[in-house]
């Protein structure tokens, strides 16, 4: 049934307000099986780390220091991969979305990160 299918869906939110990046907000989200996005750049302190439900790890990378334009480069991608793999529960579903598309960096960053992940 459609309601049961909804219960099996992964729900991830990308809040912007600082009130969402607290321990109590993380507990509230986790109790509802909702994950919180780790965003770069951080809209508020703590937003660079995933939170909420640890069964889903989701990073949304907008490019920094120049939002939507900056490429991440090999060293930053290595650090991002380490953070992605260290986050969440064992066996967590892991997603990394690149949104630094204005200068065409997203595809190259995604391919480089995928290559690094396969080589690790």
Topology:
Blueprint: H1 2-7, E1 11-13, H2 23-31, E2 34-36, E3 38-40, E4 51-52, E5 56-61, H3 73-86, E6 93-98, H4 105-119
Parallel strand pairs: 1-2, 3-5, 5-6
Antiparallel strand pairs: 2-4
Helix pairs in contact: 3-4
Low-confidence segments, given as residue ranges, are none
**What is the mean pLDDT?**
92
| Physical arrangement of strands within the biggest beta sheet | 1-2-4
Radius of gyration based on Cα positions: 15 Å
- CATH class descriptor name: Alpha Beta
Q: Tell me the series of helices and strands, N- to C-terminal.
A: HEHEEEEHEH
Query: Structural class, please?
Result: alpha/beta
- Domain module tally: 1
Give the number of helices: 4
Tell me, briefly, the overall form.
globular
Question: What is the CATH superfamily classification?
Answer: Protein of unknown function UPF0759
State which percent range the strand residues make up.
Answer: 15-25%
How many β-strand stretches?
Answer: 6
In this structure, how is the largest beta sheet organized?
3 strands, mixed
CATH architecture: Alpha-Beta Barrel
Give structural notes.
The chain is of the alpha/beta class and 120 residues long. It has one domain: Protein of unknown function UPF0759 (TIM Barrel). 37% of the residues lie in helices and 19% in strands. The chain contains four helices and six strands, in the order αβαββββαβα. Strands 1-2-4 form a three-stranded mixed beta sheet. Strands 3-5-6 form a three-stranded parallel beta sheet. Helix 3 packs across helix 4 (105-119).
